[in-house]
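W.,

You were right to be curious about this one. When I first looked at the sequence I had no strong expectations either way, so I just let the prediction run and decided to look at it fresh. Below is the sequence, 581 residues in total, followed by the output.
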Amino acid sequence: MTIALRQIEQIISSSGKPVLNGYIYIGSYGQDPVANPLNLFSDVGLTIPIANPQRTDSLGRPVNDIYIAEQNYSYQLKDQNLASIEGPKDRIAVGGLQFVNLAALRGIIGGYDHQDANLLGYYSAGDGGGGQFYWSASSVATDNGGTVIKPTAVSGAGRWLKEVSARLTILEFGASPTQSAATNSAAINAALAAQRIIRIPAASAPYSFDSTLLYQVGTKLPAGLVGDGWGTCELQYTGTGTAIGPVTPGSLFCPVLTDIKLSKSGAAGASIGINQNLSEFGSVLRAWIKGFFIGQQMGVGATSDAYFNKTEHCLFENNTTHTKVGNGAAVNANVWRDNKRTGGTTGVQQLGGDGNRYLEETAESMTYAYLITGNDNRIAPAYIDATVTNGVTIVGGLYNEVWHPSNAGGTANPITDGGTGTLIDRQRAGLGLQLYGAQFGNAALNQANVLDYFRYTTFTPTLLFGGASTGMTYGTQTGRYTRVGNRVFFEVSITLTAKGSSTGAAQIGGLPFSFNGSSVSGLYVYYYDSLATITGAIGGRANTGDGNFNLAQGGAASHANMSEANFTNTSTLRAFGQFDV
């Protein structure tokens, strides 16, 4: 887009006199502007057409700002009696240019080296796909649809090059929730080829894609995708192959998948494609992965050939998993929920991972459904089939919990405990309660190992704003807790049907015991829906003043307390936490 004339500029002819009440004709470069007029517009977005010719007022100024899509043009000036005053003449634009979309930029050849061009948007102004470009007359770089643009009329050298000073986004390569899966696949891969780590901006709908996203390879060089939070940023795979992989198959790569939801649309069977056993310095953090077949080592940590991989604070939901899922010391505070474990020799190897939750999963045709050597993990499978040789095996870890393992299929070894402080509840199997690694006894004789309180039951949690819940109603309001000695582990599930009129700080209340103010306590929200203005992961800290958990969301440098403004009438929260009494 070029601005030919501004309303405030007085039109002076070559004789030095203003063109009063005259006519301005603007036409194609090198041609008669009267016979070959261009389309004129009065706005930078080229959406408001105006007449050609345009008139001047009594002071010789254009009655409108005049914008054209072309860079170079011809013009002719006539007086109020249509007598020619000047022209036809050609004019070459000098200085910075401005374009409403990428198609307009492709239509223009730069006039000189380092000429600036401001792109207002990829498809339309303000869509997030714009940026600053400059002209390089000698460049023969390959057009990638984002940082290198070859004008349509150029057959050899000459490119518009983007000035890149920050992390690129997929919008700058043409990806959008409104574009096709094929278009988004090509755009995201072009972005990944241009920069090792790219950003996926928040959007109101998923970005669909249908072919493998190809990460750059390299030893200890991370590459991948960083989103704006899994609640507002979703990549949805519609293909049938592998969602993510290295640009060179089988090569070492360091996959990054952070603050994003990656889901599978349509029939099951597509693979996630992240094999962290072939990676170094990769990280899967605060990611929600749903609906995939995970046949590689997903969620692995430090091993001899995977130096500093991390998989933390993630939710794995409705996936079909294979070997060594959740294998590693750097696998902490994740939730695996409603997954199916099948095939291979090992379902889960923690190898030191701590604080993970395995909830309502099924297992079949495996040597081990769960092989745990980490600490403070909770395993609550829905069903373990008779085709599984070993159901839940604890090897050397501390204070793990096994809840309701089903032996309905006749598994030969449903529970094998070799850990310390393991708590096992076999109520579903009708076998009662068994406690390992601690003792009942006389406090005076065996102080360190006395267990003086154990209970597992339900409670009714509440959501409060400013300590109140006036007019609030619930569709779901359930909680359950386990108290072992002075430590309470709890889970809550809340869905609103009306958030009511109370205002103020958001809290989870209704907990069954009061806090011990000297202990370390916390709450983690592993799933939420229909919240508002969420910028990061959600957690909670104990407020010893009123016995509630204050809710807060993560930010770049610190947390921000949540309030009623972050909730709607249909909000859902699911969380787990712990505290001392």
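Here's what jumped out at me. The radius of gyration is 32 Å. And, maybe more interesting for your project: The CA atoms of residues 333 and 356 lie 5 Å apart.

Coffee later to discuss?

I.
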